Structures are given as C-alpha cells and as structure tokens.
Amino acid sequence: MNSEFLIVTNGFKGTWSAIEYGATLAQAMQVKTTLLGVTEDLNPAAIDDHHPLEDIFAQAVELFQKLDVAYKLEIRNGAAEKIIPEVANAGDFITVVSPLGRPQLKRWLTGRSIHSLMEKIRNPILYVPEARLPIKKLLITVGGLGYGEAAENIAIQVARANHAEVTIVYVVPPTDLDYPSTRGVQKHVDNLIETDTLPGRSLRKAVEIAQQAGLKAAAKARQGHIAEEILAEIREGKYDLVCMGSAYSAHTLRQYYAPNITAEVAEAAGCPILTARHKQR
Questions:
Q1: Pick from 271, 275, 257, 263: which is nearest to 114 by CA?
Q2: In what order do the strands lie in the sheet with 4-9?
Q3: Which residues share a beta bridge with 126?
Q4: Hey, how many other C-beta atoms are within 10 angstroms of the C-beta on 54?
Q5: Between the CA of residue 55 and those of 9, 10, 49, what are the distances in Å?
Q6: Band of residue 114 on the pLDDT scale cut at 50, 70, 90
Q7: How far is CA 233 from the centre of its chain?
Q8: pLDDT digit string (tens) for 224-261?
Q9: What are phi and psi of 260, to 5 degrees?
Q10: Is 35 helix (H, G, I), strand (E, B) or coil?
C-alpha cells in the first residue's frame, strides 16, 4: 500500500478510537502514519495552559512505539472541519477520524462533522466511532457500477493484513422500472451471484478477487432501501469494518453510494466505516 494514514485528533477523548484503530492497522499493513492534532479556538492568553492534545499525543506516541509504527506528529490551529481536508488533500492519505465531540446544538445546526469531511476530502476516509479490534470480519458493499473499486481494493489489503473473513453484499434497491434486466435482478435476489446480470457479475468478480488474495469470502444480496439494508447487515453480521464506495465524483446514479448514503450509514452503524471515492478514468 502506497498510501499513508493520517490519524486526526482535536484532543477530544473520543478520538482515541481513531488513534487506536489506525495504529493497529498501520502496524498490520506496515504503513507510515501522521498524527494530526488540531487545536481549536486557541486563546492566546492561555498559550501556556495545559491542552488536552498534550495528553492524547503522549498516549499516542507510546502506542506507536509499542507497535513499532513509523510516525510523525503535526499540529495545526483552526477549525477541524477546515484543517483536516486541507491536510488530507495535500498528500496520499487515508484519513482516520472519530467523532470530534461537537455539542448537540452544533450538530443540529450544522450537521455532523463526518458529512462535511466526506464532501471535502478527496482521498479515502476511515471513520471510527469505536475501535472494533481485532479485525476478523469485514463487509464490502458493491454497487455494480464500478464506484466501489477503490474501496474494494483497500478492503482486500486490510483483510489480507488481518487474516479477516470477507462478506460482499449487494443491495437491490426498490424500483418502479419494468425493464428485463431489472426484473432479472428483482427475481433472483437469493441467487444473484449466479446470474449474468451486472450486479451478479460484480459479486462474482469481487469474490474472485478476494479468493485470489487468499481470503475466505462469501457473497450475498439484500433487497430494500440501500442504507437500511446495509445497516441491517452490519447489525446481523457484527462486522469489525465496513468498506463502501462513493460515487460523489460521478454524475449518474448517485443514489447508489452518494456521500449522504455513506454518511447515513457511518452515522448510524456504530462500527468503523471506510469509504473511498469513485475516480473517473
């Protein structure tokens, strides 16, 4: 893997999940890591006061050294929703971030930070509301349109490094269209991988890639509202990591994996979500 991890904290204790999860992945995948600390609303009069970043940086450095992870530290001053995308887009990073501890009123007025970050960051994002370790069960969602390829590639690398089992799921969305191809998908949800439909071929290809990587892989299809079905699969499967593609940079059929769907899943899933944008060729 050529990408590096950019692990983010603003000193909020909940961001330790991103640090712990990111460091563990960095060790397994042998990738370099940058720990970005964002000091928000820094009062010049309190420049000598103890800042929460000091404690969390000290704990993080201890963890990096314990796991023998190559790391560097960086501190920026400003709003996290502005600073994080600036740094993330300046390099080949996978940004690892947890909830930033925003007050409920701010979340109500401006939305959760993860929505803003997914819109602004071009590179992959690993959102970690809680660190589910070790990583033994991994879920990959596929959309049949090539939008998930970037996420699938990273997911396979993560699974290999952690010897994790992989489940690949396709959600058949509700539709009022009555095309032959649509009817074929709707009628064969239970054995979609065996069909010659676009999603069937996508499932087979994803399973083959995972198996060629030496992984234990299985495929399944669900039918219904995309976000609801993915969340149901996450609850039932109790996965340690979910990998989703995003069509944010594409211009058609955005309903499959547009950032609002991914963010909706990330917000409600309660488990780590890795998302990577579709890159047009």
A1: 263
A2: 71-77, 33-39, 4-9, 93-97, 125-127, 273-277, 241-246, 137-141, 165-172, 217-223
A3: 96, 274
A4: 11
A5: 11, 11, 13
A6: confident
A7: 16
A8: 898 999 999 999 999 999 999 765 443 334 444 444 67
A9: -65, -35
A10: strand
Quick one: tokens of 97? 């971030």
How far is Cα 154 from Cα 203, in angstroms, rounded to an integer?
17
The encoded tokens of residue 171 equal 């959600």
Domains observed in the chain: 4-127 (3.40.50.620), 137-277 (3.40.50.620)
Q: Is 129 exposed, middle or buried (0-12, 13-18, 19+ CB in 10 A)?
A: buried
Q: What does the block give as tokens for 201?
A: 């071929």
- So what's the pLDDT on residue 255? 43
DSSP string, 93-130: EEEEE------HHHHHHH--HHHHHHHH--S-EEE-SS
Average pLDDT over residues 54-62: 95
Q: What is the pLDDT of residue 45?
A: 46
